[in-house]
Design goal:
Blueprint lengths: L7 E8 L2 H11 L9 E5 L2 E7 L6 H11 L4 E8 L3 E9 L2 E7 L4 E5 L10 E7 L2 H10 L18 E5 L4 E5 L9 E6 L5 E8 L4 E2 L1 E6 H7 L4 H18 L5
Parallel strand pairs: 8-13
Antiparallel strand pairs: 1-3, 1-4, 2-3, 4-5, 5-6, 7-8, 9-10, 10-11, 11-12, 12-14
């Protein structure tokens, strides 16, 4: 059987004095990555990228860089294919500050920039943890669900989108630093709905459970008509797809 390698991208971002980073770039050329895979984001920020890179030795490699260069701050990120389940880490003063794996529970295309008529990014949800919250805020500073508040929705305070596989109803946190958002996810054909509670602006949530459509409607009565419409549309699809009998 032909084995196909999984594309892996590993990125290390080093921050420190320019002279020191230039020295590191010279020392790490062809050791960490080729010179053309080193990019200066600014005079004090050097980015090293490894395509189809180091895989499971991501943390070990970061530990090695941190041990060798404790005088610079190092952020590491590794992901498979198209930013699938990325891992984040940070080293400061030769010590690991945080390490977090973003395992996505649910993700759907949703325009986070409500001024543009296109799905600019995904609304992504994962189980919140202190390490993961810090990692997302630092490594993905543009990821923010709060701009969705400007979009129209099925009920006051709610926004809605669908990708054909699921429909998301999202009530955003009341204020930027709150963790009281709610997401209701309707999966056609399954008869169950997922409820996510305690959502923050970065998509981290506290609780996740599957519930019947009736129980969701009782908990979120303002969505009752929207959920009923989803159920009717789902039933109509099933009817159309059933073979006719004579």
């Amino acid at each position: 059987m032909l084995s196909v390698a999984t594309p892996v991208t590993t990125v290390f971002t080093l921050t420190g004095p320019q002279d020191r980073l230039r020295q590191i770039a010279e020392e790490r050329a062809y050791r960490t990555c080729a010179p053309d895979q080193m990019v200066w984001e600014s005079d004090t920020t050097l980015v090293m990228t490894l395509e189809n890179g180091i895989g499971t030795s991501f943390l070990r490699h970061g530990d090695g860089l941190s041990d060798e260069y404790p005088d610079v701050s190092i952020r590491g990120m590794e992901y498979f294919d198209c930013f699938d389940d990325p891992g984040f880490a940070k080293w400061q003063g030769g010590q690991l500050v945080y390490e977090a794996d973003l395992t996505t529970v649910f993700s759907i295309l949703f325009p986070t920039n409500s001024s543009k008529d296109w799905a600019g990014c995904c609304a992504t949800f994962w189980r919140r943890s202190p390490a993961l919250t810090a990692a997302i805020a630092e490594n993905c500073p543009d990821f923010d669900l709060m701009p969705l508040r400007k979009l129209a929705g099925p009920a006051p305070g709610w926004v809605q989108t669908s990708d054909g596989f699921a429909t998301l109803f999202l009530r955003l946190p009341a204020v930027s630093d709150a963790r009281d958002g709610v997401a209701v996810i309707f999966f056609p054909g399954r008869g169950k709905v997922m409820l996510l509670e305690g959502i923050d602006r970065l998509g981290g949530f506290a609780r996740c459970r599957r519930m019947s459509q009736g129980k969701i409607a009782a908990r979120c009565p303002e969505l009752r008509s929207a959920l009923r419409a989803c159920g009717k549309a789902d039933e109509e699809k099933k009817r159309v797809g059933r073979p006719r009998t004579h």
